[in-house]
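[audit] Reproducing an earlier prediction to check determinism. Same input, same settings, fresh worker. If the tokens differ from the archived copy the diff job will pick it up downstream; this log only records the rerun itself.
[audit] input (129 residues):
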Amino acid sequence: MKIKIMKSFLICSFIFLGIFGQAQEKKSDSIMITVFLKHQQDKNLAENQEILKANKFYETFPPASARVVSWYVMMGIGQVVTVKIPASELRNFNLSVEKTAWKAFNTEFYPTYDYKPIWEDLKKQNSKK
């Protein structure tokens, strides 16, 4: 009887570890990227909108595999978009920018991570002192 209980425990442990390991693996497989879409200031807004429409920017960017974390307009600069994508989709994400945003925007890409939880922990630790 004890052997059956131990076997059941081991099987449940391996299943739990397998599920937990897969969840961790999937989490680490995604990356965050911030894209600066800088307006080309030799064109006015109407000209930029025509380029984006002709290139099907809003239908293509970001690709379906991306989750938009934030999308802001920075006055005088352009747009700043942060997305989370599976690492394997990096090429497709890049192509969605190259095929649709160029001519309307100059682009810059930055690997990104969420610092807010770290900042909050540091703030709590320092307020206790």
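[audit] rerun output stored. Observation attached for the diff report: The chain has a mean pLDDT of 84.
[audit] end
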